[in-house]
Amino acid sequence: MIGRLTSTERQYAAVVLSLLVVAGIAMAALGRNDALGVHGVLVILFAGGLLYAVLSAFFEPEPREDREASYYDDPIKAGIVLSMAWAVFGMFMGVWVAAQLAWPSLAFDAAWSTFGRLRPTHTSGVIFGFGGNALIATSFHVVQRTSRARLAGQFSPWFVLFGFNLFCVLAVSGYLLGVTQSKEYAEAEWYADLWLVIVWITYLVLFLRTIARRREPHIYVANWYFMAFIVVVAILHIVNNLAVPISWGHAKSYTIWPGVQDAMVQWWYGHNAVAFFLTAGFLGMLYYYLPVRAQRPIFSYRLSILSFWGITFFYMWAGSHHLHYTALPHWVQTLGMTFSVMLLVPSWASAGNALLTLNGAWHRVRDDATLRFMMAAAVFYGLSTFEGSFMAIRPVNALSHYTDWTVGHVHAGALGWVALITFGSLYTLVPALWKRERMYSARLVEVHFWLAIAGTLIYVFAMWNSGIIQGLMWRTYTEDGALAYSFVDSLVAMYPYYIARAFGGLLFLIGALICSYNIWMTVRSVPLAERRDSDVPAAVAVPGE
Amino acid sequence: MFEISHETLVAFSKSWGLFYLMGFFLCVVAYAFWPSNRKRFDRAKTSILDRDDKPWK
Amino acid sequence: MPELFHRKLERSAIGFVLAIIAAASVGGIVEIAPLFTIDETVEEAPDMRVYTPLELAGRNIYVREGCYACHSQMIRTLRDEVERYGPYSRAVESQYDRPMLWGSKRTGPDLARVGGKYSDFWHVAHLINPRDVVPESNMPAYAFLARTELRTNDLGEHLAAQQALGVPYTDEMVANAARDAYGQAFPDSEAASGVSERYGEATSVSAFDGVATRLTEMDALVAYLQVLGRLTDAAFRDTAATEQAPDAED
Questions:
Q1: Which residue of C has its CA nearest to A319?
Q2: Which residue has the higher pLDDT, A12 or B21?
């Protein structure tokens, strides 16, 4: 990897990493009486380890090939590996916390292993670790291929990738240490947030400079989605995480937003993290890997443009549906509800566009599990956006809010849409990237597909049932007008569903393990593809064609 | 935020937001259906399926 | 025109980024900006006091342990919630809350008005092992809180940071933060009187964890739980009609 950098670029890397080590030392010194100090040591180890790698290859011969004549794929490969590592970690944590809800004794007598601390390691692990790395890797791939331009930088892609992973490590280890803002999906503390801003701006600049290198007159629509993802996540992240640390030596900070404003800002962030992290970026994947895998152009390019602006515009209004019947002003709730319902139009336009692209190639969907992953993802995308709009309607929300129904909805989206489209994209990308003729085992892809589908369905059905039962029990009255059930009654009714949910999650985790094994074996043992130029392996293991 | 009352701000938000939405929608539709854009969209649609795997320069 | 405009936008990706910002920021601005003038519309609560240093420390433990993942602190305006948990939550009640802890999920019950509902003793026993008190519970055990000494040497900095953000802590409160935290959990000590002087006679001064020899995180968390919903009685003063869930109208 380092052999591919020129000596100037190596110096650059060494300087940046040294600065990071210095920052780590400062954190360790200032925060020696605080969790901040632990994170300082972690930063020193992370940056120091990379610095060691750079320095030990510092005097190797410089690259002689013309780098501009090929795409820059090394960071993408690393991103895929990191993404799968986080997937296994994050999903394992998910299964563990799910099991804790069914069997609360599955914790140690120690603070770090309680549900409240483990739960964000699951959410951050899968959203940022698995999803974020997959987005960075695929965006680097898609932007190069669609722009027919090499990434505009040798060092900056690595900075973005490793910098982002440092953020993830700081976030997740922080939760275990008790460092958290308790802002849902934005738990990481101020210094990690500041670091992410630097990384993210580098990412944006890199992406824009690469696009500026293109020869194509038109920017392919997948890049629009990646751009919206990068830009809007930056805005959301900065605004929601504005905070004042109590001192330079403390990990703890207080947000500048009090009470009701904090609630609105938090859910404006929270809902749009779903929109721009978990939807826009993954739609970018869909609009590239689905047509490529199916070898058919997207059904309607115009529709993809309309739905792009629809999603970009409408989503931002919808966050307040998380706060129905609360102390938030009524008109804001109504506005949020209205736009949430309107969102269904661009969302279904995207899902429909994906499915209509496959129209006429259903035999390939039947035979090729990779394509089926993407088709199932589009179906789940359509279903969960419908469910989301439905749940945003005030009277429905009265029943669903605070219950497991929300959790079920989130996982219909996260497992059914986000994870399935990612797996489909990775199965397309891995052989192309490592120039293998196919995945190691098409059969294992098939097994993974059915594990993922079964896991998702079990999970979602369990949560629908428990959520609706819970919501109904809370509002059931006896004939003489008293509440019929105590809270504990409703909890007892949940236990069977919590067990089923943990089982569904376990199936999904096993699928991810199989996927990791399959990728590993593809890289290790599948022969090189004959046509080395080919971006897409010809007729990838499509029997019967 | 200094002398503006809550009602004024809310009223402005609601009306301006609506006009903005409609204006935006019209621009996007015009762009998507502008006849001369058709060629570019068609090219974008199919060009990603090319097998060529090298940057252009 | 839009066509030419858009072609230019595409040429320069930066213009495209600006267009994305223009499209995406409106919703947030429209909904969030008016909230800065919300003070005009929110009911006032002149009787509301700030969290004592001990309660704030307890709140930070609640934050640290991620309790919001299973407990809301936001009673909605629905009839069944009001009957189960008490008067629905007012915006003013969380005016000093950074972050707000309204939550999004009730694996356990709402805690917005849990203060005073159970005894200190009940809370301690429940936190040490929830299943000793509620056999069906799936809440984690927080026995380690009773073993962990509360860090008080930085409480002044906590209060100062909150003060800088506009929470009405006086300089005297900031200066006495650690002492007040100690005093609130040791009713017989000299420091105890300062707490009621600075935070009002109604402030509960008690050996929260039942052990009057050391100040633990258990003391702080129980002190916080016991004050939830009791910083002001705004919600009890005007009780507008609640909504019946299924036929709620906008």
A1: C28
A2: A12
